[in-house]
TrEMBL record:
<keyword id="KW-0511">Multifunctional enzyme</keyword>
<dbReference type="GO" id="GO:0005634">
    <property type="term" value="C:nucleus"/>
</dbReference>
<dbReference type="InterPro" id="IPR047187">
    <property type="entry name" value="SF1_C_Upf1"/>
</dbReference>
<dbReference type="InterPro" id="IPR014808">
    <property type="entry name" value="DNA_replication_fac_Dna2_N"/>
</dbReference>
<keyword id="KW-0227">DNA damage</keyword>
<keyword id="KW-0255">Endonuclease</keyword>
<dbReference type="Pfam" id="PF13087">
    <property type="entry name" value="AAA_12"/>
</dbReference>
<feature type="domain" description="DNA2/NAM7 helicase-like C-terminal">
    <location>
        <begin position="669"/>
        <end position="779"/>
    </location>
</feature>
<dbReference type="InterPro" id="IPR051827">
    <property type="entry name" value="Cas4_exonuclease"/>
</dbReference>
<dbReference type="GO" id="GO:0004519">
    <property type="term" value="F:endonuclease activity"/>
</dbReference>
<feature type="domain" description="DNA2 rift barrel">
    <location>
        <begin position="469"/>
        <end position="566"/>
    </location>
</feature>
<dbReference type="InterPro" id="IPR041677">
    <property type="entry name" value="DNA2/NAM7_AAA_11"/>
</dbReference>
<dbReference type="Pfam" id="PF21123">
    <property type="entry name" value="Dna2_Rift"/>
</dbReference>
<dbReference type="InterPro" id="IPR011604">
    <property type="entry name" value="PDDEXK-like_dom_sf"/>
</dbReference>
<feature type="domain" description="DNA2/NAM7 helicase helicase">
    <location>
        <begin position="626"/>
        <end position="664"/>
    </location>
</feature>
<dbReference type="GO" id="GO:0046872">
    <property type="term" value="F:metal ion binding"/>
</dbReference>
<keyword id="KW-0004">4Fe-4S</keyword>
Length: 867
DNA sequence: GCTCTGCCAAGAGGA
């Protein structure tokens, strides 16, 4: 919030003052709003706007004059003059922009004929999003906010299937039998079958509808591919800027090959991203001349509209293509229903207007929060104006959110003007909501938006294009200098196993571990985000990854980098849920009642009335394994009509084991805290369990610190021990293993424990993941500084469960057996995991966990998943 | 103070 305050302070200043603002203040703003941006000139320029002035030129027209700098020191200033419609770009002092065009004598001129300005170029907006903003900017912004409001439909499924069939055919064959086979095979894919089930459609009707398209596929291929004479190819009117002067726009079009399928491109130059259905090699025969171009081909399965939205999408893809190769100057729009293909030239005017829309959208997405006019209240900003087109609104899937936002947010705080004809519609859409509901929506929408904007939650992959791999490697979240080795193995649909080798020597110190999500890019500029996936295996020299695309089309010499996918703040799901909670349905109404208006949950009186007769034995069997308080709570859950809050903590059982050794001081280094002695002991104990006949997959190793996990992993790799899972406490949440070994790591003289271990919830998770045996390893004097652990030791000590391994550096080792004794450790009321499967089997709405007070913590309520 | 949580994604078509 401090940063936001700073920003607003700047925004409130007038232009004159802006220019005079001290450089440090600007630098502060840039650091807080654009933490990763490095100002730079040249092709990938990033300018900081220092001042904005509106002036009248000699012809009496308005121009926007910007004072800009591409230097971190802010010392060297350039100018940018925005003419014609560019004057309307909502650019403000402190903004980051990218400029395309020419800079002469320190001045950029962007006008209707030449040049582009890209606002917040590192914010990548998808082609479809921008295309949809043509009709209604508000809807485009709402769709980016409330994702998942678009219900899936039969047509969408058909569309997805047909895209896939065409894409397979173009690199295979369009022969009718082959098409049949590809269609059949595609329909059988699990993801499509699931979707059919969801939409309540049967396979046969989908198959039939898909098959209706296939003759058009063949017709298209017959027209555009594999002919003997050039003149057999369809004639089209297509003039490209590069053959200017020549009036001959007539040409024959030959589609030679498919260069790529679903090519995913990020363009930090134009601030765009997108996926190109098919990237095709095309020969354009004009007179006796032939030009070969690699161009985007966009497939459409719906009505042959050749609409401005469809064409715009293609124009945007020509911009994306420039990130990888020469400007295609045009693209193709193919309607699969008829096989009709339209050329879409990308002229300056279209590109200019689309980029202006992109800028507008970027502005709205960037400015989600505002300050109230009266003072210091942080509130949600207004969205783009509601349009006055009842026809467009009639079928809009964002109608509900649009009206809700207008009523709950805009009409509450702002003097925003709603078109009069839209007022009744807004009222109608929101009349089922009480004031308390609107308030709830406003509050949570604000909270979630703020959360997503907080510094460490901001989702951006900017490092990939703003920072070279060699520099990123220092953080441990990136590995560069990799080349692809061996063959790419296709594991499944959209899953390709790749092997990478560090080109020179060994892989540097890294945080990357098996299971981490990564983004694969080329080291060279144009190859950002070629593919996404997971690390499968990593050692000193090689990395194995499961990727979503097959990269064997790249030359083997291509230098690649892996970037750990930054955590993404998923506010999409809660925002989607919030939107759903406000829907005019019975289910949502009931939930509003319980959640917003706090209606007390209801319970029925007798279990026999709810339990199906044949479920009795099963339930009895499950209950038998629980202790008394667990059984009582379980009963309450079963009687629940609405929801049940379960207050609980896990644990029971005991036994002892003894070892001798872990002095075991911790090491603090760049990668984090670790404890080699504990690690060795732990690996030793693991080997004992395996020798004793335990299955490695039944053993889990937990440590709170990543560095410790790394050391344990290294030790395991050098031993003969197989696939033992090693992970952080948090990754084990909600799961368990037969045998769990925990390494507490911390051991020092001054009693520093760090905040991490002090989180009692984490401690709780760590000691409750074991089904049969739990071994805790740690330094008693160090850990004793913390009351909850002290309590634990007190108990363990009284039960003689602690083995002191060395006289002055005491280490405890213990395990106990869970579920074998009725007696609960610490008199814990519950074992939550025992409850949840049963609860969900009973179809409860909520399963709620209240954190227990056993460690003198404050009362926290956790609302867990809805069903 | 060194950890994690919600996570695949841009588009599938409608009018």
């Amino acid at each position: 919030m401090e940063q936001l305050g700073e920003l607003e302070l700047l925004m409130e200043k007038s232009f004159g003052e802006e220019a005079a603002l001290p450089a440090e203040l600007f630098q502060k703003k840039v650091v807080s709003s654009f933490p990763k941006t490095v100002l730079t000139g040249g092709m990938d320029n990033r300018y900081l706007v220092l001042a904005v002035d509106i002036v009248q030129n000699e012809e009496g027209n308005h121009e926007k004059h910007l004072i800009i700098t591409a230097h971190q020191s802010l010392e060297y200033k350039d100018r940018c003059i925005l003419r014609n419609d560019w004057c309307s770009v909502p650019v403000e002092p402190g903004d980051i922009i990218h400029l395309e065009g020419d800079c002469t004598a320190g001045t950029w001129i962007i006008d209707k004929h030449f040049g582009y300005l890209i606002l917040y170029p590192d914010m990548l907006i998808s082609g479809t999003s921008i295309a949809s903003s043509i009709r209604c900017m508000r809807r485009a912004v709402l769709s980016e906010t409330f994702r998942g409001s678009d219900p899936a439909t039969r047509q969408m499924l058909i569309g997805t299937v047909l895209h896939e069939v065409f894409q397979k055919a173009i690199s295979n064959s369009f022969a009718p039998e082959k098409l049949q086979e590809l269609a059949f095979q595609t329909i059988q894919e699990i993801k499509h079958l699931k979707e059919m089930y969801r939409l309540n459609l049967n396979q046969d009707e989908i198959k039939q509808e898909v098959e209706e398209y296939l003759p058009s596929f063949s017709k298209w291929a017959g027209d555009f591919m594999h002919k003997n004479t050039l003149t057999d190819f369809p004639q089209m009117q297509l003039s490209l800027p590069s053959n200017d002067g020549k009036n001959n726009s007539t040409c024959n079009i030959e589609v030679v090959n498919s260069v790529d399928i679903e090519e995913s491109i990020w363009s930090p130059r134009f601030g765009l991203k997108g996926k190109i259905d098919v990237t095709v090699g095309v020969k354009i025969h004009r007179g006796c001349k032939t030009k070969y171009k690699i161009m985007p081909l966009e497939l459409k399965t719906g009505k042959e509209s050749n609409s401005i939205e469809h064409r715009s999408q293609v124009v945007l893809y020509t911009l994306l293509s420039q990130e990888r190769r020469a400007d295609p100057e045009a693209g193709w729009l193919l309607y699969l229903k008829t096989g009709q293909m339209y050329p879409v030239p990308a002229n300056h005017l279209d590109k200019r207007e689309l980029l202006k829309l992109r800028n507008q959208m970027a502005f709205f997405l960037f400015h989600r929060i505002s300050k109230s006019a009266s003072g210091q209240k942080t509130q949600l900003a207004s969205l783009p104006q509601i349009i006055e087109e009842e026809k467009t609104c009639k079928y809009c899937s964002q109608m509900g959110n649009c009206a809700l936002y207008s009523r709950a947010v805009e009409q509450h705080t702002d003097d925003s003007s709603v078109p009069i004809i839209m007022l009744p519609k807004i009222k109608e859409e929101t009349q089922h909501l009480k004031l308390s509901h609107l308030e709830y929506f406003r509050l949570w929408c604000l909270m979630l938006t703020l959360e997503s904007q907080s510094k460490d939650n901001r989702k951006n992959h900017q490092n990939i294009w703003l920072m070279p791999a060699s520099k990123m490697e220092e953080s441990g979240n990136c590995i560069g200098n990799l080349i692809r080795t061996k063959h790419v193995k296709t594991v499944g649909d959209g899953q390709y196993l790749h092997n990478f080798l560090r080109k020179n020597g060994t892989i540097p110190v890294t945080n990357l571990m098996a299971g981490d999500r990564i983004i694969l890019s080329g080291e060279e500029r144009p190859l950002f985000a070629l593919s996404r996936g997971y690390v499968k295996e990593i050692n000193m020299t090689t990395v194995t990854c499961l990727l979503d695309r097959n990269l064997s089309i790249l030359p083997e010499s291509t230098l690649l980098r892996l970037d750990q996918e930054e955590k993404n703040c998923d506010i999409d799901t809660p925002l989607g849920n919030l939107s759903k909670l406000m829907e005019n349905t019975d289910v949502s109404k009931k939930l509003r009642d319980l959640i917003i208006d706090f209606r007390e949950p209801q319970f029925i009186s007798y279990l026999s009335s709810v339990l199906p007769h044949d479920a009795k034995d099963t339930v009895a069997c499950i209950l038998k394994g629980l202790n008394k308080p667990q059984r009582q709570a379980m009963k309450k859950v079963l009687l629940s009509k609405d929801y049940t809050l379960i207050v609980g903590m896990p644990g029971t059982g005991k036994t002892t084991t003894i070892c001798t050794l872990l002095p075991a001081p911790e090491q603090v280094e760049k990668g984090g805290v670790s404890n080699i002695t504990e690690a060795k002991l732990l690996v030793f104990l693991t080997s004992i369990f395996i020798k004793a006949g335990s299955n490695p997959s039944d053993i889990g190793i937990i440590a709170p610190y990543r560095q410790q996990l790394k050391i344990i992993n290294d030790l395991l790799a050098h031993s003969s021990i197989g696939m033992v899972e090693v992970n952080t406490v948090d990754k084990y949440q909600g799961r368990d293993k037969s045998i769990i070994l925990v390494s507490f790591v911390r051991s020092n003289k001054d009693g520093t424990l760090g905040e991490l271990l002090k989180d009692w919830r984490r401690l709780n998770v760590a000691i409750t993941r074991a089904k049969h045996k739990l071994i805790l390893l740690g330094c008693v004097p160090s850990l004793n500084c913390y009351p909850p652990l002290e309590k634990l030791f007190y108990h363990l000590n009284s039960e003689k469960l602690i083995s002191f391994l060395f006289c002055n550096m005491k280490v405890f080792v213990t395990y106990w057996e869970i579920f074998q004794e009725d007696k609960a450790l610490f008199s814990l009321p519950f074992h939550t995991r025992a409850v949840s499967p049963l609860a969900s089997a009973c179809g409860l709405y909520f399963v709620c966990y209240k954190s227990s007070a056993w460690l003198d913590c404050e009362d926290n309520f956790y609302l867990k998943g809805t069903k």
